[in-house]
Design brief:
Helix content is 31%, strand content 25%. The protein is built from three helices and four strands. α1 runs antiparallel to α3.
């Protein structure tokens, strides 16, 4: 179950437009095979994406979709710098129900 944490820094005044652009694509992303979750989070100046895929193959398939390509084309002019993409593994600890991110229902 590969997880991805991405941070995107928009140009000044572009955070809301960046969020709206991603929000339009959420239904298609959520419908992709292997998508366990794909969530958006914001701070005052950044958009964070936290996502999980059933396998590395599903993650690779996601990055090959037309949805992914179109979204990247639309967000490129909104960004102040390239996205920071981190593929991460959980480090379990403490309460097993609270120590790692899980897809709903698992």
């Amino acid at each position: 179950m590969p997880a991805v944490i991405a941070s995107l820094t928009p140009k000044e005044g572009m955070l809301q437009e960046l969020v709206e652009t991603y929000t339009r694509f959420l239904p298609a992303i959520h419908a992709e095979e292997g998508c366990e979750f794909f969530t958006l989070h914001t701070s005052k100046s950044e958009l964070f994406i936290v996502e999980s895929w059933a396998s590395g193959e599903h993650l690779r398939a996601h990055t090959s979709t037309q949805t992914f390509k179109t979204n990247n084309e639309l967000i490129a002019p909104l960004l102040a710098e390239p996205p920071k993409i981190n593929i991460v593994r959980a480090v379990p600890g403490g309460d097993p129900d609270k120590g790692i991110l899980r897809a709903v229902g698992t």
